[in-house]
Write a structure and sequence with these properties.
Elements (H helix, E strand, L loop, with lengths): L20 H6 L3 H11 L4 H6 L1 H9 L3 H15 L5 H10 L3 H5 L4 H64 L2
Length: 171
C-alpha cells in the first residue's frame, strides 16, 4: 500500500551502484543509460567526468533536439550535483564542429534572432499588461472624480436653491 492505496503498478527500487557502467552504457536506450550514469555518479564528479566521452558518444546517437532536451533535464534536476565543466561537455557533444569552434552559422543567427524576438514579445506583453492595469486604475480614478464632481454640482444646486429661498424670505 502507498498512501492508503494499492497502486496499479509494481514498485522497484534499484541500487544504481550495483549496475555495471559498461552494461549501462551498452543499453540501446541512450537517454536511460545517460540518466542512470548521471544519477549514479552525481556525487562522484571525478568518476562522472571520466565517463563523459562514452556518454557523449551515446548523446550523438540521439537527434539534436532530444540530446539538448536530455542535457537540459540533467541541468535542471541535477545542477547542484553535476559540475559546470561536465554540463558544458555534454552540451558540446551534440553541437556541430562549427558551433564547437565558435563559428556562427546562418541558422544560429536565425535562432538567436527568433529567441530575441520571443523575449521582446514577452516583454512587450508584460508592458502592455502593466499599461492596461494603469489605464484601468486611471479610469477608476476618473470615475471617482466624476462622481465627486456630480455630488459637488448637486450640492452647488442645492446651495443656490437655498440662497434663492433665503433671498425671497428676506424681502
Amino acid at each position: 500500500m502507498y498512501n492508503g492505496r494499492i497502486p496499479h503498478f509494481e514498485f522497484a527500487f534499484v541500487n544504481l551502484a550495483e549496475i555495471d557502467d559498461d552494461l549501462c552504457l551498452a543499453h540501446s536506450n541512450a537517454e536511460a543509460a545517460i540518466g542512470a550514469i548521471t544519477m549514479k555518479y552525481a556525487f562522484d564528479m571525478i568518476k562522472y567526468e571520466s565517463l563523459l566521452p562514452e556518454m557523449e558518444k551515446k548523446l550523438r546517437t540521439l537527434p539534436s533536439s532530444e540530446s539538448a532536451c536530455l542535457v537540459s533535464k540533467i541541468e535542471l534536476y541535477l545542477d547542484e550535483y553535476v559540475s559546470r565543466k561536465a554540463l558544458e561537455e555534454l552540451k558540446m557533444a551534440f553541437k556541430s564542429i562549427g558551433q564547437r569552434l565558435g563559428f556562427v552559422s546562418a541558422g544560429d543567427e536565425r535562432r538567436a534572432l527568433e529567441r530575441k524576438v520571443r523575449r521582446m514579445e514577452s516583454a512587450s506583453k508584460a508592458k502592455d499588461a502593466k499599461l492596461v492595469e494603469k489605464d484601468n486604475a486611471l479610469a477608476e480614478k476618473d470615475n471617482a472624480l466624476a462622481e465627486k464632481d456630480n455630488a459637488l454640482a448637486e450640492k452647488d444646486a442645492l446651495i443656490a436653491a437655498l440662497q434663492a429661498k433665503l433671498a425671497e424670505m428676506s424681502k
